[in-house]
Amino acid sequence: MSNFSDFLKKSIDEIKDKGLYRQRIILSENILDFASNDYLGLKDNNYTKEKLCKNIDRLSLGSGASALISGYHHIQKELEEFLADFKQTEDCLVVGSGYMANVGLIQAIAQDGDVIFSDELNHASIIDGIKLSKAKKVIYKHCDVEDLERKIKSYNVRGRRIVITDGVFSMDGDIAPLDKIIEICNRYDAVLVVDEAHSTGVLGKEGRGTLNFFGIKPAENIIQMGTLSKAVGSYGAFICGSKLLIEYLVNKMRSVIFTTALSPIQNFISLENLKLLKDEEFRRKKLFENVEFFVKKSKQLGLNINYHGTPILTYIVGDERKVINLRNKLLEKGIFVGAVRPPTVPPGTSRLRITISSKYSFKDIETLLFML
Ligand SMILES: *Cc1c(COP(=O)(O)O)cnc(C)c1O
To answer: Residue 347 sits in which domain range?
Structure first.
C-alpha cells in the first residue's frame, strides 16, 4: 500500500477504535425522522412544489456566476427584501449556506487588532470563521454572561470587540441570554453577531428568531445570520443588518465574491417556504404542542430529557458506543434520531439529539418514547 493510502487507512482505524466512526445513511421513506431540522415540515410541502412547477419556465436552473459577475437574479433580490422585512433590518445578503455565511462574515468584519468573544459551544462554522480571521479569539463559558463581561473588561483591545453566539445552540437546544448579552455589548461598544440557524421559524413573533423572542430591536451593532436549510426547509443562508454592513460585505466577503450565487430555483423555494413559515402559525403551534407532549410523556416514563424551550431535546447516554447501539436499535424499528459524539460534544456526554417537528402526531412521538 502506498504511504498516503496507509495514512488514510490508519486514521480511519483510529476513529473506529475510539467508537467515533461515521457513515452517511440514506433513510427509507417511511421512517420517522427525529434527527432533521425540518421543524415545520416545510421541506416536503406540496404547496411550494406545485408553485415551483407553475413557475419553472421563468427560472434558470443555475445562477451562472457569482453574484458580482452575473449571478444576481431578480428572485434573489426579492428573497433578500423579504428577509430584511422579516428580520426588521435595513438590508439583507443571501449567500450559499450557513457555513459559508459564518466563515465569510467573520473573516470580513474581524480585523487584526480586533478581539472576538465566542461562546464555547458555538457552531463549527463560527469557529472556522474565527480561525480564518486575523482577530484574537477569546472563548467565554457557555451562556455565562459574567464570564463574558469579565473577559471583555480584562482584554486590552486595539481594534473592535465582537461578540458571537448561537441564538439557539444546535446540540443542546438552549437559548443564549441575548437580553443580557446585548446590554454588555452596548456597554463596551461591541458588535453582536447572532447565529439564528435554529431559531428562525421557531422562536419569536412569526418565527423571527431569538432577538425578536427577547424583544431586542435591530441596531447598527447587531448582525443576524441564519440558514435557509433548517425550519425554512430549503438551502442557503442570509445575513441581515444595516445597509452599510451589506454594502461592505458585498465588497469584502470572500464566500460571496469567489463563489457562484445560489440557483434561482433554490431561491424561489426559499422565498415561498418563508412565506408559509411566516403566515402559517398553525405549524409553530403544532410544533410546540408536540414538544410539550414529548416533554410531559418523557417525564411520566422517568426519562431524563434535557429541555430548554426549543424543539431540540437531548437524552444524555454518556458512552460513545452505547449511544450508537441505542441509535441502531431505534433505526431497526424505523425511527431515526441523531447520535452526537465527540468532537461535536465533550467526551463522556454522548447523546441522542432528538428534534421535534410539526409534521408528527402524538402517536409518532409515543412510538419513539416507548423505545428509549
Ligand atoms: C446548521 C448550522 C449552520 C450551518 O448552516 P448550513 O446552511 O447547514 O451550512 C450554522 N450555524 C448553526 C448554529 C447551525 O446549526
So the answer is: 20-39+280-371
| 121 and 158 together in one domain | yes
Residues 273 and 364 in one domain: no
What's the CA-to-centroid distance between 202 and ligand 1, angstroms?
15
Please report where in the chains the cell 463522556 appears, as a residue.
348
Residue 355, CA distances (Å) to 66, 160, 301 in order: 34, 37, 19
Pocket lining for ligand 1, CB < 6 angstroms: 97-99, 102, 123, 125, 166, 170, 195, 197-198, 227, 229, 237
- At 355, give phi and psi (nearest 5°): -110, 135
Looking at the DSSP assignment, which residues form a beta bridge with residue 238?
94, 226
Determine the 3-state secondary structure of 255 from DSSP: helix
d(CA 310, CA 273): 21
Let me know if residue 11 belongs to a domain. Answer: no
> What are the per-10-residue average pLDDT scores of the chain (372 residues)?
92 90 87 96 98 97 95 97 98 98 98 97 97 97 98 94 97 96 98 98 98 97 98 98 98 97 98 98 98 97 94 93 92 94 85 96 96 90
In 3D, which of 119, 206, 214 has the Cα closest to residue 170?
A: 119
From 230, 255, 259, 266, give the residue whose CB has the most ligand 1 atoms within 8 Å, as the site to mutate. Answer: 230
Q: Cell 441522542 belongs to which residue?
A: 352
Three-state secondary structure of 86-106: HCCCCEEEEECCHHHHHHHHH
Under DSSP, the state recorded for 58 is: G
In a domain, 222, yes or no: yes
